[in-house]
Amino acid sequence: MKHYKIFISTYPFGFYDSEPMRILEEAGLEIFTNPLKRKLTPLEVAEFAKDVDGIIAGTEDLTPLIQKNSKLKIISRVGIGLDSVPLQLCKDRRIAVAYTPDAVTMAVVELTIGLMVTLTRKVVLAHQELRTGGWSRFTGKRLGESTIGIIGAGRVGMNVIRILSEFKPKKILINDLKDKTKEVASILESRKIEFQFVEKEEIYGNADLISLHVPLTSKTKNLIGRKEFDLFQKEAFLINTARGGIVDESDLYEALIQKRIAGAAIDVFETEPYKGNLIELDNIILTEHMGSCSYDCRLLMERGSAEEIIRFFSGKELLNPVPEEEYQNQIV
Ligand SMILES: NC(=O)c1ccc[n+]([C@@H]2O[C@H](COP(=O)([O-])OP(=O)(O)OC[C@H]3O[C@@H](n4cnc5c(N)ncnc54)[C@H](O)[C@@H]3O)[C@@H](O)[C@H]2O)c1
Questions:
Q1: 272 carries an active-site annotation
Q2: Catalytic residue among 243, 298, 303, 311
Q3: What is the pTM for the complete model shown?
Q4: Hey, whose CA ends up nearest to atom 33 of ligand 1?
Q5: What is the pLDDT of residues 142-169, one digit of tens each?
Q6: Number of other residues whose CB lies within 10 A of the CB of residue 3
Q7: CB 329, CB 217: distance < 8 Å
């Protein structure tokens, strides 16, 4: 293979398993890793990767890099979200884009289900209270007696529905751009769990627990803000393990402080690492964009993205090129 330079912006990479790094080196690629060992700003990525041929990227906005680096040939995303990749610009510049869409699914699903139980059964409140001498034995509504709203029934949303079906929720309300009735029916009908595809507003007004699994696009930016929170039931909980920017953070703060909703669990933020005022509140659980942070998922994603880079520079076809549909979805 000719001599190519690759920058790995995402961190950690090859931390829990060295295989992804080893296969890149064995392929004869010159590898540069993120020297700051934290999420880089878009301008830092542009500077560190200004003369590489390919990048293995996390969720940093790559627009400044593409503007600065005229020889970039491939972006290999560790993960599924493409909101950080300006796809049309890549197409115009003939930059290939690969991702690892299936590697992350079950790790995000498990975190989501865990947050659902932790939030509705007030586990964090109990933990905090017990450490200061209290013992009030908080009580909550079981998932099995709840109406659950799922917005986005793709890889993650569909598997959340499948695992939730074991709890036998009262009803599952679903919203997706596509008609996924058959797929959902094949999971829920034999278990006699009622479900319905509905408009988003119907979910806001009727669900005890709403979980977001849509990508961040021009249509989902600030999807849930003040107007939507006003439709929520007072006892409703919101979970966002999808993307920062889908929920308006200042409107969420208002809704939580005014107890217009019961609580929220948020894994993803508009700006990460998150330093905002949601940390002041008791009726929220905050995690650190760690949906993909299981050992197996990190390895699958990192190896998958490394293999795409190797395939590309060996002149082979990509296994997971971003499909045309995703390019269309990004067009405003
Ligand atoms: N927390 C994390 O660490 C983490 C890790 C991986 C993925 N994610 C996020 O999880 C989310 C879901 O991932 P996935 O693998 O299921 O993606 P996916 O592409 O398989 O599914 C997304 C679904 O959302 C639907 N959708 C798109 N726009 C919509 C809209 N405006 N209204 C209703 N439905 C809409 C699509 O039709 C699709 O069914 C994404 O936002 C992804 O970025 C988070």
A1: yes
A2: 243
A3: 0.96
A4: 176
A5: 999 999 999 999 999 999 999 999 999 9
A6: 9
A7: yes
